[in-house]
Amino acid sequence: MAAESKSFVSQTCDGSKNASARTLNSDDPVRIRVADLANWTQVGLVFAVIMLAVWTPQGRFNSGLSLLAVFCILWLTFRGPYSARELGFTRPASGAVAIFAAGALITIAIAASGPFTRILGPAHAVPWSRAWQYAIWALAQEFILQSFFYVRLESILGGWRALLATAFLFAVAHIPSPLLTAMSFFGALFFCEMFRRYRNIFPLGLVHAVIGLTIAASLPDRLLHHMRVGIGFLQYHP
Q: Over the stretch 75-127, which tens digit does the pLDDT of each residue have?
């Protein structure tokens, strides 16, 4: 990974664009190309390991892939050139009200659709013992989505292209569930836009958890397969 530091200009509420490393270092195109290649390599490597983990049966090999993915993400994130603020760690109150308000509207809309979609079957009751575990996993997903994938793609592609690219990767990770794949794409657009504006993964993690649990409790489990993706979706038996 190129060792160059990248300046960060924080987003304002009107969504003005961050100054990127490409603009700030336009006098050194070689370093930009090297940094871009490093970012593409890291994104491709980590996404490939994640997809292998998603599509292999439970067991030692799957556990090894999962641990490898965790190690790569943590190592590359904390050894990378991005500051804690760029990664979304140092502004715990930034944009929280706007994120919570938008998340509440999405949650209400999903819950309101429940009575209409349950004609296809009952939803999946999520016990509290698993709900808090999912909340932790939701925050971890936001860290992976924003602090690893989005910041790298933003450095290469710029803001709005990075939104689409990150949402595409998030949706692909939810194949072959048609419902979760579609919802993940649009959900990631929302999460990434909020991150782009406010650089704060903490309220995003909480909203992600609430939306995910609402989906599980409101929509038919015959379509969600207990919110499983990859090989788990195909192996699901009610």
A: 999 999 999 999 999 777 778 999 999 999 999 999 998 787 767 777 777 77
Distance CA 124, CA 58 (A): 22
Single-letter amino acid, residue 13: C
Both tokens of residue 199?
A: 């650089």
Distance, in Å, from the CA atom of 119 to the CA atom of 78, rounded to the nearest integer, reads 47
According to DSSP, the residues that pair with 46 across neighbouring strands are none
**What tokens appear for 164 in the block?**
């689409």
Helices (H) and strands (E) in the chain, counts: 11, 0
Tokens of 14: 């009107």
Q: What is the pTM of this model?
A: 0.84
- Would you say how long the chain is, in residues? 238
**CB-neighbour burial class of residue 121 (10 A; exposed 0-12, middle 13-18, buried 19+):** middle
Tokens of 182: 């579609």
Q: Is 199 left (phi over 0), alpha (psi -120 to 50) or beta?
A: left
Q: What are the DSSP calls for 36-69, one per residue?
A: HHHHHHHHHHHHHHHHHHHTS-SSHHHHHHHHHH
Residue 121 CB partners (closer than 8 Å, separation 6+): 220, 221, 222, 223
What percentage of the chain's residues is helix, strand, coil (to nearest 5)? Answer: 70, 0, 30
